[in-house]
Amino acid sequence: MTLLVILLAVLALILLISWGKVNAFLAFLLVTIPAGFALGLGSKQVLGAVQKGLGDTLGSVALVVVLGAMLGKLVAESGAAQQIAAALLGDRGAKGIQWTLMLTGFIIGIPLFYNVGFLLIMPLIFSVVYQYKLPAVYVGLPMLAALSVLHGFLPPHPSPTAMVVQFHADMGLTFLYGLLVAVPAIVLAGPVYTRTLRGIVSVPRPGLVAEPLPAEVLPGRPNSFLSSLLPVLVLAVVLGLQAVLPAGGPLGPTLAFLSDPSVVMLLSVVVATFSLGMGQGRSVPNVMQTYAAAVSDVAPILLIIGGAGALKEVLVASGASQHLAAGLQGTGLPPLLLGWLIAGFIRVCLGSSTVAGLTAAGVVLPTLAQSHANPNLMVLAIGAGSLLFSHFNDGGFWLFKEYFGLSVKDTLRSWSMMETIVSVVGLLGVLALDWVLPA
To answer: What is the membrane topology here (predicted)?
Structure first.
């Protein structure tokens, strides 16, 4: 019954949004409330879950998305993104652009949380698209594949880090094995798969694309790189200090505060206001107009992400995630495959990769010792499963769709398939490592 309700809810979402042309946020509410009742929640529980889902989801991403949009818009309008793109491409022009951006996304994605990285690289992607007249999805998806894989597979990202602790895995070995699994997944889902997507027409939101500026008015390259990539630098320094300093030391609370994505983005926006705004001859009111426009650009996206969070919370509050996981536990499948399958099933049904990963970990944990599975590989198997087939109930799906200005069909064909490829290739990589590593 639980699975039937979830499938009907997803089907209703698809029909309302793609066929009925209903606003996505409204469609989420129209589907979430009946689904809550059908799953056995009372009226107060349904409303409480909707409010909690909206609040928790927006509370965790709203500051990052808004501040990231502000920084991204200023980076684009100031010409900093244009400078970075020119430096990355050099004299090669568009030759090898996918590989260059994929590597950039990989480097950025190691220390940065997904939403921060996504918003940080958007101006860079669109600057390249505008300058070289290339298809946006063809250029941008390899970079986003790198971000997504690192978010799902590798510490210090939230879900993998939590699973390392739960499974008593080795952080260093998990990171090393994760790199071995991540590289083929990114390559196949990025440059290889996107060769089939060159025909997709992307119409980005007008506020997200900046006209190329004359070379004489561009900020300097050091300023452009430092101001745009400051979140990466701050987090890299903070994480490095946390790794070498003793736990519980006097700097611990300060470093924990500085490692919060919202704090990192706020610091970066403040610095960019001076370095890319006032330092380039713009007045404070002019820079604030840029920030106001950035907020208006992302407000509809935030509502959609909040709606997806409301649906997720209703499913969690009703016990649907545990019910689905328990139904798969007695299958007799190999433990690594089972962990991937449980995480993937919950991901497809609930949308949240973090919820899928942590729920699957909680289900698999009691049987890990008896199964003799490698705990480092179990972290990666569940992480890969948590990325499987992002669709209507995932905020990342809507973030990608709205930023790239795609139809639902093209978003499924590009974003959803990319996530599925990295998930399946990730599983195959984990199974290959399990075969070659000593028991």
So the answer is: Multi-pass membrane protein
Residues in the chain: 439
Residue 97 structural domain: 2-436
Q: For residue 91, give every residue at least 6 positions away whose Cβ sits within 8 Å of its Cβ, in sequence order, or none.
A: none
Q: Which residues contact 72 (CB under 8 A, 6 or more apart)?
A: 119, 120, 122, 123, 208, 294
- Contact residues for 64 (Cβ-Cβ < 8 A; gap 6+): 113, 115, 116, 119, 261, 262, 265
Angle (deg, nearest 10), helices 335-350 and 320-329 = 150
Element (H, E) at 234: helix 230-244
C-alpha dist (Å) from residue 14 to 3, 17, 348: 17, 5, 14
CA atoms of 114 and 125, how far apart (whole Å): 16
What 3 state SS string does 296-322 have?
A: HHHHHHHHHHHHHHHHHHHHHHCCHHH
**Side-chain half-sphere of 142: how many Cα atoms within 13 Å?**
25
Q: How far apart are CA 86 and CA 21, in angstroms?
A: 40
Q: Using N-to-C axis directions, what is the helix angle for 24-38 and 284-317, rounded to 10°? A: 20
Asked if 418 contacts 144 with a C-beta cutoff of 8 angstroms, the reply is yes
- Residue 389 is classified by DSSP as -
Task: Categorize the per-residue pLDDT at 275 as very low, low, confident or very high, splitting at 50, 70 and 90.
Answer: very high
Query: Tokens for 214?
Result: 């004359």
Residues 6+ apart with CB under 8 A from 245: 251, 252, 255
Written as six digits, the tokens of 189 are 């889902």
First-last CA distance in the chain: 40
The residue among 338, 354, 341 whose CA lies nearest residue 394 is 354
pLDDT tier for residue 387 given thresholds of 50, 70 and 90: very high
Calpha distance 50→36 (Å, rounded): 9
pLDDT (tens digit per residue) in 102-130:
988 887 787 666 777 788 788 888 888 88
314, 32 Cβ separation under 8 angstroms: yes
More confident residue, 30 or 325: 30
Radius of gyration (Cα) for the chain, nearest Å? 22
Please tell me the total count of domains within the chain: 1
- Render pLDDT for 317-329 as a digit per residue (tens, 0 to 9): 888 767 766 666 6
- pTM assigned to the model: 0.77
